[in-house]
Amino acid sequence: MKIFARFAQDESGATAIEYGLIAALISVGIILAATALGGSLGNLFNGISGKLDTTVGGAALTP
After folding, report:
1. Which residues of 32-52 are buried (b: 16+ CB within 10 A; e: fewer)?
2. What's the Cα-to-Cα distance from 28 to each of 2, 7, 49, 58, rounded to whole Å?
3. What whole-number distance in Å separates Cα of residue 11 and Cα of residue 2?
């Protein structure tokens, strides 16, 4: 019977679950932020790539 009383008073499992929930919420936040910013970052890098292609292509053609 003492083993059940000790098990009921042990809070280490609850603490582990709380840390797991916090980690899950942070992960969801990171995924949502990456999804929201993904399109605009892709457009930004594509624009930079286009400008570099134009600059490098123009420089390669001039003697």
Report:
1. eeeeeeeeeeeeeeeeeeeee
2. 41, 32, 31, 44
3. 16
- pLDDT digit string, tens, across residues 8-62: 677 667 788 889 999 999 999 999 998 888 888 888 999 999 898 887 765 555 5
HSE, CB side, 13 Å, CA atoms: give it for residue 2: 0
Tokens at 13, concatenated: 């499992």
Alpha-helical regions (H) of the chain: 2-9, 12-61
Task: Report d(CA 22, CA 30) in Å as an integer.
Answer: 12
